[in-house]
């Protein structure tokens, strides 16, 4: 996981650079010497950032010395960012007068700028030391010249090409000799009726290959399982007819009851039927044998894939368990003959340079489980959507999702149902399912498509088969078949890149009557292939009830499964840890059916999946995950690892997570978007990849990140993230009984409700680099905050209902001056915020929803960085079902019964110009006037609107350039009602064009007519009485 370390380091360095540059630009706060030091630091970090980009692309990160240097660099970047933030947020007011008050007999007073200058000087020295350490150990010296960088890039490209073909081989070496006898790969007919293809490849030539195959070929049990057998050694020039004649002779002599002919023995041509004389007769007789009998064919010394194409057309798959064994000296031939997906096993190692490997088809158990339309569990909605899209002509449908989520099973179920429905249709059509070969080979893909094609009339396929047998280029042949007006349904499974699709699309020129379904793991590939106007389906994990149903179903299939006494409890834990992935669920169910200790599997879940050979079928999921973490954007990696903070199945409010990412510096402002917009985008990506799931209801998986109010971390991904922690504890938790012997350190501390609250253990923690403190559970202890938490950015106490007092909040403000995120949501014991709150000059997020706080302190106006303020309490009132007829006929009406009570804000609130989310606040005439100056507001919630102050609210809303969400609670005491004129009495009123969400609660007579002119409005809630939940944004 070295790439993850690099990615996290790059993200930290990038954030540090932006902070340093911001400090340099703010010259009013800096001494000249500090300016010079920061310029030097900027240059050094830019060079370090360039090195990280190079190291991420090469093999150097695997060097232990480089890894150590990268870790030191990351720590330095964190410290630099903390120091620079101190400079950025210094009080800009001059403090020179303080020096004049110092008596000569007293020591000089140290001002904040002096402390900052000293820290920056020390920081500069550390940057120099890190840079010199790199030069001493020559870590990046050979990356200095352009030629070396180009050479490294070329070598990297060659290495990646080599890895594409050698990774399976290396895995086989690491696992040892998994195949003891070739006969293991030739199962009984009833177990695997499909045509089996086995490739035997020798890395150092053909030494020993023929004898390995001969042992299986002559095995008495194998001989009895096949009705006809034949062995052909390919010679040059290649003559397919000669090979077919040789095999046909052996078919007539090597029956399942007769003695086997040895390789090299003379074969009697008289063994052929007397009617076989011409070439055409040889082919017809051969085809008759392979179509009616179970056959075993050995093709020795296959040299090219063209030779395989020419012979494979005569070796049909009749579902009777026939097998073909190929020997070759070429890796790509061995791989392509078997097709995808396949597995590689090291059979025998003769010398260090010569090993024999066996390629065989990998049985896809979980991914294709329940392929029949009636058996597929939990996919009804997706099936309907997909079938409806197939009826569209000339379309490209992309189906994407993470590995193991069941994409292929879903598409195969729809594919089969669609073909069954077409049996009564007499119109011409062509359909085929093809797996994309890896590495990508267009010729092999087209050859496979032709071999698996079916058509009406059948002569279309027969003609294509004959042309393919005559060595016609399969690409040209596919183009002629698919570019016409014949209705086509083609499924292309396993697409890995946009370049692969571009090559396929350009070469085959699909006709106007073609429907192409693409199956891929990558969203970018799906969007590229389908474009903006086509259908893209994101397949997500199964809901809990469907996952449990699938698990139980697979468990019942096993013969006499072993189940524990507490099966229901263990099943729930296991199913949750499988994360809704069908492939994982089925594999684990089959494994547990033969194992009595389910609890051991639960406690070491990821380790079992990665190390137990009985669960080898799920390794592809880990392969995809490792690949995803290597290739995903660097800015997303810290966001993913941050998820391990939250306990399993813990509901996380969407905005809580996004605001925390912003406070940590993971989501930042860019040229095109605000940090919050970027954070919402990051969260949507994680939802799309099933890393986050909707909390509170069992959905179909179609909800997007921006639509869900609450989510939770997918249990499987959480287990995976925790298992991939970096060398130091990125996230460390206190739970249960903790030992005092371990000195804990890290950047994110989590206190669980199960922890025994041992203060001695707490005092042994190193808080010097702690960035966040999160408390889960009801109880709070005063010692949870410390003066040593000097760089703490995030304090999240949401839901702490016991032990937390107003005095605790006062102490927090004193001890934690660098907080950027403070959440006291649901802390019912808090009734007021201290006046010292204004000291939190860096605070960006303040959430005091559902507390007893009714007013904000005057000093809050000093917190110029505030962007997000959530407040308000609820008071119960009776519900009413009366609503306006206009709302009933046009939009949703939700009459509910709780009244929102906003907090009072102090004068001068208009100075907080960075606010973009504010609510719920209590309306006053003066307060509403000040709101006009908050031009960046995007979400606003106001309570207590009546006939006396409605014009001020109208002025706030009128023509607002950014407002997207507005929630208004009308004054309950205003018994006269509320009508259209309240917000629409002046001709100069301008509609807020960007308004997307509007919530009106109270005694309504009629709605403003301008609502119907809001073109972007997509969410309108109206209730006769104040709404139950004032969480408007």
From TrEMBL:
The segment(s) forming the Disease resistance protein winged helix domain are 645-716
Q: Tell me, what's a Pfam family for it?
A: NB-ARC
Q: Which domain of life is it from?
A: Eukaryota
Its GO biological process annotations read: defense response to other organism
Which InterPro entries does this chain map to? Apaf_helical, Disease_R_plants, LRR_dom_sf, LRR_R13L4/SHOC2-like, NB-ARC, P-loop_NTPase, RX-like_CC, Rx_N
What would be an example GO MF term here?
A: ADP binding
Ranges for the NB-ARC domain? 192-364, 390-555
Q: Which residues form the Disease resistance R13L4/SHOC-2-like LRR domain?
A: 770-1022
**Coiled-coil region(s):** none
Disease resistance N-terminal domain residues? 12-90
Q: What are the entry keywords?
A: Coiled coil, Leucine-rich repeat, Nucleotide-binding, Plant defense, Repeat
The UniProt similarity line reads:
Belongs to the disease resistance NB-LRR family.
* Cited PANTHER family: DISEASE RESISTANCE PROTEIN RP (PTHR23155), OS08G0246300 PROTEIN (PTHR23155:SF1135)
Provide the protein name. Answer: NB-ARC domain-containing protein
Gene that encodes it: LOC100835798
């Amino acid at each position: 996981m070295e790439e993850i370390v690099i990615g996290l380091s790059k993200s930290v360095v990038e954030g540090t650079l932006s902070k340093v540059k911001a400090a340099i630009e703010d010259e009013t706060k800096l001494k000249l010497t500090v300016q010079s030091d920061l310029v030097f630091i900027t240059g050094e970090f830019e060079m370090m950032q360039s090195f990280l980009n190079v190291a991420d692309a090469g093999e150097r990160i695997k060097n232990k010395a480089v890894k150590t240097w990268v870790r030191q660099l990351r720590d330095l970047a964190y410290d630099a960012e903390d120091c620079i933030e101190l400079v950025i947020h210094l009080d800009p007011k001059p403090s020179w007068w303080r020096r004049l008050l110092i008596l000569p007999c007293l020591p000089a007073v140290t001002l904040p700028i002096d402390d900052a200058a000293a820290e920056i000087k020390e920081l500069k020295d550390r940057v120099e030391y890190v840079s010199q350490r790199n030069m001493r150990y020559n870590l990046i010296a050979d990356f200095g010249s352009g030629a070396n960088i180009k050479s490294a890039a070329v070598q990297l490209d060659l290495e990646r090409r080599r890895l594409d073909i050698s990774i399976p081989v290396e895995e086989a070496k690491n696992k040892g000799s998994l195949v003891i006898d070739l006969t293991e790969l030739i199962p009984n007919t009833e177990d695997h009726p499909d045509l089996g293809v086995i490739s035997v490849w020798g890395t150092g030539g053909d030494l020993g290959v023929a004898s390995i195959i001969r042992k299986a070929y002559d095995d008495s049990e194998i001989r009895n399982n096949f009705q006809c057998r034949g062995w052909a050694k390919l010679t040059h020039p290649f003559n397919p007819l000669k090979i077919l004649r040789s095999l046909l002779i052996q078919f007539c002599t090597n029956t399942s009851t007769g003695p086997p002919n040895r390789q090299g023995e003379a074969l009697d041509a008289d063994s052929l039927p007397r009617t076989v004389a011409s070439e055409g007769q040889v082919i017809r007789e051969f085809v008759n044998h392979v179509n009616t009998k179970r056959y075993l064919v050995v093709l020795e010394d296959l040299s090219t894939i063209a030779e395989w194409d020419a012979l494979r057309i005569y070796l049909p798959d009749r579902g009777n368990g026939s097998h073909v064994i190929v020997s070759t000296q070429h890796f790509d031939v061995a791989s392509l003959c078997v097709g995808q997906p396949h597995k590689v096993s090291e059979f025998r190692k003769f010398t260090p340079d010569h090993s024999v490997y066996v390629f065989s088809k990998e049985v896809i158990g979980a991914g294709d489980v329940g392929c029949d339309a009636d058996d597929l569990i939990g996919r009804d909605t997706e099936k309907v959507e997909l079938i409806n899209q197939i009826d569209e002509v000339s379309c490209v449908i992309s189906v994407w999702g993470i590995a193991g989520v069941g994409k292929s099973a879903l598409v195969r179920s729809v594919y089969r149902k669609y073909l069954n429905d077409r049996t009564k249709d007499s119109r011409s059509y062509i359909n085929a399912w093809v797996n994309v070969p890896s590495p990508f080979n267009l010729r092999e893909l087209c050859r496979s498509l032709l071999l698996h094609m079916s058509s009406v009339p059948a002569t279309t396929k027969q003609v294509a088969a004959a042309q393919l047998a005559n060595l016609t280029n399969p690409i040209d042949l596919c183009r002629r078949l698919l570019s016409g007006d014949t209705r086509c349904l083609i499924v292309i499974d396993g697409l890995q890149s946009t370049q692969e699709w571009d090559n396929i699309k350009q070469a085959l020129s699909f006709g106007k009557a073609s429907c192409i379904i693409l199956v891929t793991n990558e969203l970018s590939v799906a969007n590229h292939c389908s474009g903006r106007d086509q259908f893209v389906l994101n397949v997500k994990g199964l809901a809990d009830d469907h996952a449990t149903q699938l698990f139980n179903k697979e468990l019942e299939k096993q013969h006499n499964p072993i189940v524990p006494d507490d099966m229901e409890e263990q099943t729930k834990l296991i199913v949750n840890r499988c994360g809704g992935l069908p492939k994982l669920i089925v594999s684990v169910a089959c494994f547990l059916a033969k194992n009595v200790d389910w609890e051991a599997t639960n406690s070491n879940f990821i380790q079992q999946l990665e190390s137990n050979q009985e669960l080898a079928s799920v390794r592809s999921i880990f392969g995809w995950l490792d690949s995803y973490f290597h290739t995903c954007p660097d800015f997303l990696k810290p966001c993913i690892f941050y998820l391990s903070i939250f306990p399993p199945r813990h509901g996380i409010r969407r905005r809580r997570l996004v605001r925390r990412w912003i406070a940590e510096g993971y989501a930042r402002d860019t040229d095109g978007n605000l940090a919050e917009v970027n954070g919402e985008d990051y969260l949507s990506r994680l939802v799309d990849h099933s890393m986050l799931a909707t909390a509170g209801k069992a959905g179909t998986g179609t909800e997007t990140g921006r639509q869900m109010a609450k989510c939770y971390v997918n249990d499987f991904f959480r287990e995976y993230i925790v298992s991939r922690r970096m060398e130091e504890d990125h996230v460390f938790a206190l739970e249960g009984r903790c030992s005092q012997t371990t000195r804990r350190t890290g950047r994110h501390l989590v206190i669980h409700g199960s922890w025994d609250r041992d203060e001695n253990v707490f005092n042994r923690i190193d808080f010097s680099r702690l960035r966040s403190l999160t408390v889960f559970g009801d109880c709070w202890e005063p010692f949870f905050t410390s003066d040593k938490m000097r760089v703490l950015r995030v304090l999240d106490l949401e839901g702490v209902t016991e032990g937390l007092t107003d005095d605790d909040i006062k102490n927090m403000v004193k001890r934690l001056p660098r907080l950027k995120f403070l959440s006291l949501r649901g802390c019912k014991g808090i009734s007021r915020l201290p006046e010292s709150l204004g000291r939190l000059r860096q605070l960006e997020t303040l959430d005091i929803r559902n507390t007893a706080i009714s007013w904000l302190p005057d000093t809050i106006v000093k917190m110029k960085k505030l962007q997000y303020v959530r407040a308000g309490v609820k008071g119960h009132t009776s519900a009413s079902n009366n609503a306006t007829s206009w709302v009933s006929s046009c939009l949703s009406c939700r009459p509910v019964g709780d009244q929102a009570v906003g907090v009072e804000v102090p004068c001068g609130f208009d100075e907080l110009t960075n606010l973009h989310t504010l609510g719920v606040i209590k309306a006053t005439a003066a307060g509403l006037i000040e709101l006009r100056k908050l031009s960046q507001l995007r979400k606003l919630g106001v309570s207590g609107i009546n006939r006396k102050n409605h014009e001020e609210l109208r002025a706030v809303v009128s023509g607002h350039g950014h407002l997207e969400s507005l929630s208004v609670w009308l004054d309950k005491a205003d018994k006269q009602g509320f009508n259209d004129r309240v917000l629409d009495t002046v001709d100069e009123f301008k509609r807020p064009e960007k308004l997307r969400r509007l919530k009106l609660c109270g005694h309504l007579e009629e709605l403003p007519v301008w609502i119907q002119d809001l073109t972007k409005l997509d969410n309108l809630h109206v209730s006769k009485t104040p709404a139950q939940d004032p969480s408007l944004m």
